[in-house]
Amino acid sequence: MKVCIVGAGDVGSFLAQKLAKEDIPIAVVDRDSVKLEGIALKPNILTFNCDISRRECLQHCGDYDTFLFLTDNDELNLTLSLLIGKLWKEKDIVLRISNPLYDELCEALNLKYINIVESTVSNINALLEYPFASGVWQIGDITIWSIRLDSSNPLTGKLLKDFSPLRERFNFSVVLIRRKGDFIVPKGSTRLLEGDEVYLATDKNHSAELLKALGFPPQRVRTVFVLGYSRYADFWFETLKDKNLTVKFFHPLSEVCTQVGEKYPFVEVYQTYETDGETLTAEGLTEADYVWCLDENDEKNIVTAMFVKSLSAQRVGVLLKHPQYESFISSSGIDAYVLPKKVAAAKIYSLLKGEEVLEVIELAEGVDVYEKTYEGETVRLAQLKLGENEFVLFLKRDGRVIIPKGDTEIKRGDRLLVLRKI
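-> structure tokens emitted (422 positions)
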């Protein structure tokens, strides 16, 4: 596979580097030479500063079999997808869109697409469903939570072997631990410590029972504060219409407040600065179950989040556009974040792999979980040939989720959930 990425923005450059690490030849095309500078010298990546719609630019790209249109402009991505599809019918094409109104158009045109806004908002809603988690991923029938352990967490201080009875009942596993910046592959003798970030996976059908058995009290988000406005905030409001939540929105611009109030009558709108501590406190900031900072600007979201945490907000999440802030967020006291470029990259990666990989998620930098169908002869897990630093977490067979052991037989048609450290 050779991949041509059109658009060297946040998503395009991130995905180019991720695919290049797998020795996949990559071309990145953009009219803005500045955007290309950061990836021009990376291994396995060629860059072309040109307009893909022009003949002289197309000449560079003819031998690439897959095209990813990842600019920030929906209409441009749609137009270029149709152009390349008409010129080279055999090419595999995936495009990025942000406007939900274009979903039906892409489906009518039989185009593979990822809606980055819808996918990001889906992640935010998952965090509302499991407010104890700093991250939530769904891959097939498996739910994965990342949980930061403090002194009051019911997991803190436990040995993993203590969970053996629950593993038999609920098909769950501690798949990874991040401790002081390093990843640890869990063993039965591993003790969970305060400050650890624990990645816990389970069959989603038993998640509520498992959480109760582990000692997590039932939690339901009833009140949400939204600070700042963006296309992500706008679409999130759309999804909250029927969730029976109290939603309070704060923004300094009257035109934004009027727009939100008219479009979403269930939202309580307050025209004030996101750092107006007096108004936030008066409106119940400390009683709110979740505060989300959803401006288009990363730095503003981070500063606002730290400000409301200083006012004793219970849980605070932020929208991030740039992954360089991830490590800071983990140590800042901010409870959760969503990173659209990683959401989009994972979904595009799944589309690229097709039948080989059914779905993939990125848990953290350099750590993926993917689902694939096993097509080989029957073999015991201990003899299964996997890539370096790959581990089978679960297998699914005939509707059942199984935690495999070394002597478990892996059969043709089994679906394997695999952890991979890159």
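The radius of gyration is 23 Å.
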